[in-house]
Amino acid sequence: MDVKGRSAVVTGAAGGIGAALARELGSRGARVLLADIDPAVAQTAEGLGQAQWTGDVASAAGVTGLLDAARSQLGEVDLYFANAGIGGASGLGDDEDWDAVLDVNLRAHIRAAQRLIPDWTARGTGYFVATASAAGLLTQIGSAGYSVTKHAALAFAEWLSVTYGDDGVRVSVLAPMGVDTKILWGDPDNPKTGDALAAQKAVSEAGGVLDPEDVARTVLDAVEQEEFLILPHPEVLDMYRMKGADYDRWLTGMRRYQAKLRTIVKDA
């Protein structure tokens, strides 16, 4: 798909990967609406000369409001980047933690697709891009909620592609390791400790930490080629193959790696 002249919605666009995607889309000639619960999205959008919407894309009402605003400002939505995400709580979390991470990292994708797919299948065209994570192919040490929801986001994107691909709907899923964003580093005034710090190190030390702009270029190149799995860190594919080749060995290795990280964090 050539994005020039197309209309695109990007969630989680106040900063990080979302803002970089909006910038790259604009540079390739797309009309973009940036969406985020963070009011800073207005400043980001103004700097790019694009439209913006502030609200909660994790709620059903929020998704409806976002798409109504997009159609009012841009016309029919051609591409939807379900990029908003949160890290979730460490460990198992509680029910409130699970509600939050499921809503943002998974249900927001489902709710957007429920509203977009009927129109896209009628028109015979549309593109859904889900931001998951390498954790969706592998796992995330330290956070059950993040790992489970990123697996689920990837699985949902896969299902969309299988089910609606012959109706003209294209789907891609982004699965990076470390990207230089707040979701990786957290709040500098409230530094991570314990399993949260171990989770951060598991990502930041597994491979290079990429700039969001580099990730955005990789994503848009893949979208123009209509590739499903987008891996800014190509080594993730080798890791995934190793996991599938010998699951028990992989699990043993991950437990060993987790123990090493916990020792490092404890001794720090």
From TrEMBL:
UniProt superkingdom: Bacteria
GO terms assigned for molecular function: oxidoreductase activity
A Pfam family this chain is assigned to: adh_short
Keywords: Oxidoreductase
Homology family: Belongs to the short-chain dehydrogenases/reductases (SDR) family.
PANTHER family documented for this protein: 5-KETO-D-GLUCONATE 5-REDUCTASE, ALCOHOL DEHYDROGENASE, PUTATIVE (AFU_ORTHOLOGUE AFUA_3G03445)-RELATED
Name assigned to this protein: NADP-dependent 3-hydroxy acid dehydrogenase YdfG
Lineage: Bacteria, Bacillati, Actinomycetota, Actinomycetes, Micrococcales
